[in-house]
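Supplementary notes for students who missed Thursday's class. We covered one full example, reproduced here. Read the sequence, then the structure, then the short commentary at the end.
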Amino acid sequence: MPKSRLSEPSNREPDREPRAQFAALPWRRNPAGEMEVLLITSRETQRWVIPKGWPIKGMNAWKSAAQEAFEEAGVQGKIAKRPWGAYGYDKRLKSGRLQHVRVAVFSLAVDNEAEAFPELGQREKIWLTPAEAARRVEEAELMVLLATFQPES
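Structure (token representation):
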């Protein structure tokens, strides 16, 4: 039986990052009464995404999602306390390795768009029908969430 090599370094990086993120799915009704959802670009890859982030210490999931929506897109409103759904994606960490992340998505009925917010100028924003938004995102599960979105209110 081979001797254990516990003293040798491992090429595997330990998981330091959480594996859960929280996202807001901002939505509104346009002047014609049609529902629109908000997409933003990611800072690094410029892909179309919804506002999301790692859990914020001391905040519950939906409050974290609402905070991310404000910081990344400048939107505020009524956030649902239960997730509408979830999707998964692989995030490339600064170390270069991929971390699988599961994102809980909370509906956010937008009633205010701030003129100034923390990530202003770092991202693009666009309001689209849910069907059009679904066509612009890359993550298959997020496509389904967007295409089937029905707000509670």
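Commentary. The CA atoms of residues 71 and 98 lie 25 Å apart. The beta strands are 20-29, 35-41, 48-49, 52-53, 75-79, 85-92, 98-113, 125-128. If anything here is unclear, bring it to office hours.
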